[in-house]
Amino acid sequence: MLQIYNTLTRKKEPFVTRDPGRVGMYVCGINPYDYSHIGHARSYIAFDVIRRWLEFSGYEVTHIQNFTDIEDNILQRAAESGRDWREMVGEFTQAYFEDFDALGVLRAHRYPHATEHIPEMLGLVNNLVEKGVAYPVEGDVYLEVSKVPGYGRLSGRRLDELQAGARVEVDERKRSPLDFALWKAAKPGEPSWDSPWGPGRPGWHIECSAMSAKYLGEGFDIHGGGQDLIFPHHENEIAQSEGATGHPFVRYWVHNGWVTVNREKMSKSLGNFFTIREVLAKFRPEVVRLFLLMTHYRSAIEFSDAALEQARGALERLEIAVQHMDRLLSLPTGSEPPGGALAGLADAAGQCEAAFREAMDDDFNTPRAISALFDLVAELNRLTTVAGSTPTAEDRPILENVRGLLLRLAAALGINLEAGRRGPYSEEMAQRIGGVARELGVELPESPVSAAEAAISAAVDALVRARDAARSEKQYQRSDAIRSRLRDLGVILEDHPEGTTWRWA
User: Fold this and answer.
1) What is the mean pLDDT of the chain?
2) Are 242 and 69 contacting, i.e. CB atoms less than 8 angstroms apart?
3) Half-sphere exposure at residue 393, Cβ-oriented, CA atoms within 13 angstroms
4) What residues pair up with 200 in beta bridges, in sequence order?
5) In sequence order, which ranges of 331-389 are alpha helices (DSSP H)?
6) Tens of pLDDT, residues 5-56
7) What is the C-alpha separation between 100 and 156, in angstroms, rounded?
8) Residue 494: which of 485, 314, 505 has the closest Cα?
């Protein structure tokens, strides 16, 4: 049975949904005032895998992720750059989708924007005021923390400790330094909306409570985000939501660990962040995903190019295993009597799937799940070496099943092991590879092919044949030049007894 670590109880718990077979999941989204960085990728890939595994396990998931499109940082950045804040939010919201589509993150079912849900927020704030849990002061409205039983239990902090060490700006209008704003009175030049307490805008925390309640109901299954959101954001969400409804807000609080650089948390405020765009300019999306998933989602992960290079090598091992099976399946069926050499591969596949499922059901333990894939690949390589180069009729269904299993389990992690083969098929790449062929005197097909993929494949195949000819004639300088020029363009040549194959790096 699936077990999930619950930040609220600080232990793993059996996963039991409010509605059998259905999961409501809310993940805190970005504040769109800059490009998303690799820390954001860590969080949204983690919850993407959680959603994928829940769906793989048969649950129907409703995934909600917000955009906080009105808050202090947005207004400050817009003022500093002299831009309209709405235009800036629109630009970086679009950039978010471009980045995370590239990383293969499934789109949430809804992306509510804070500014589109002002009436729901006003209703929630008014409810809290009427219940005596919140109080208005000169156009602001504050939640009175002392009126909410158990405040601090998510972060493990006692109320007296929080009061003694409160790092908040002194405001004599508040009844306690810990009381936080649900509604902020309008300031000159800032956007505002009408309210019963005068024009103003919502506080940060009230947004998620109002939007999650609208789309998932007043109680749902999973609320996710980074560990930095536990206090005060998620703590305050609990206070205002439960203060309004009187019943538990969320069943399972799930938080991912930080990405660190030189052992410091990656963040925009520290200036030690790398944007997703910068990273994807150097590494394929599948490499980035594998790098992030090779560490458990609750643990910190140290970011470096060296670590990404290791992930690139690991991904290639998985991709080459699929290509190895494809190559074997493309060969004529061997006439040797069945020796049963690949019978053990079927057993290894069963063990891999069982180990993978057990790992993922143990609080989404992706490092152990990935290890199970590599165990299967190691056994594949060992047994196919024993079996020889030509599969028998009995071998073929075993290879086909193992290939399908490897692709299916990797896909549960959002990793497509055939993506590298498809490669960057663009007109520009076709022209570049064609240019290399002409420069090296390699004749291309006479009839130009309009489709980029076909043109690239034809050009690379022609270069491979030219290299084979150069090797047979002992023209090793030309042979090496063809390999090197293709490698510069991201095309890797691999020599096998059956011939030379190529793939994208």
Assistant:
1) 90
2) no
3) 3
4) 185, 193
5) 343-361, 366-387
6) 999 999 999 999 999 999 999 999 999 999 999 999 999 999 999 999 999 9
7) 33
8) 505
Among residues 412, 367, 362, 411, which one has the least CA distance to residue 57? Answer: 412
Q: Which residues of the chain have pLDDT under 50?
A: 165, 167-168, 337-339, 447-450
Amino acid sitting at position 117: H
Q: Which domains, from first to last, does the chain contain? A: 3-281 (3.40.50.620), 320-419 (1.10.730), 423-504 (no CATH)
Q: Do residues 329 and 321 make contact, with C-beta atoms less than 8 angstroms apart?
A: no
H/E stretch holding 89: helix 85-102
pLDDT in tens, 299-346: 999 999 999 999 998 998 999 889 888 888 887 876 554 446 688 899
Structural tokens at position 402:
């193992």
Q: Rounded to whole angstroms, how far apart are CA atoms 418 and 87?
A: 38
Q: How far apart are CA 25 and CA 47, in angstroms?
A: 9
Q: What is the pLDDT of residues 144-184, one digit of tens each?
A: 999 999 999 999 988 776 765 454 456 778 999 899 999 99
> Which tokens sit at 397?
């269904």
